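The pair is set out directly below:
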Amino acid sequence: METIEFKLRGEFVELCDLLKLTGLADSGGRGKAMVGEGLVKVDGVVESRKTAKIRAGRTIACGDTNIVVVAETA
């Protein structure tokens, strides 16, 4: 299983945008579709909100990839 560390700038990132920014989705629209299809878990629970606010400390699972969201340090 691949793990991606995503450095968060700001307070949060929307889930569909996170999938796009990490390369798991080729567009925000595809990211929304992936969430709608039930392919994405946030902290082990299937997430159905396409624009869920993802903050530092959360782990997102999609297929064989985990995304660990960490706060960007100055």
Observations:
- DSSP finds two helices and seven strands in the chain.
